Amino acid sequence: MIRIGEQSGAIDSMLDRVALYYESEVDEEVKNLSTTIEPLMMVVLGIVVGGVIVAVLLPVYGLVGSGGANKLK
Predict the structure, then answer these.
(1) pTM of the model
(2) Does residue 11 contact residue 2 with C-beta atoms inside 8 Å?
(3) Residue 60 DSSP code
(4) CA 14, CA 2: separation in Å to the nearest integer?
(5) CA dihedral angle for residue 10, residue 16, residue 21, residue 22, rounded to 10 degrees
(6) Model confidence pLDDT, tens digit, residues 25-45
(7) How far apart are CA 16 and CA 23, in angstroms?
(8) How far apart are CA 41 and CA 27, in angstroms?
(9) Phi, psi angle pair for 10, to nearest 5°
């Protein structure tokens, strides 16, 4: 396309066309990548939140189950 632009004397418009083409290609790839990564991020976030909840609740259940309230006094 650049060669055609040089031969026709319209290299600036041809370079604009090439830039728009590659910009749209990059935008499409970024969109596809973000669509692919989004579910994975949700799973990772769910695992982290679940881990925090388990880390908070297990000691509480351990104290209640073993009569830990009496041990604290």
Answers:
(1) 0.53
(2) yes
(3) H
(4) 6
(5) 120
(6) 999 999 999 999 999 999 999
(7) 10
(8) 20
(9) -120, 50
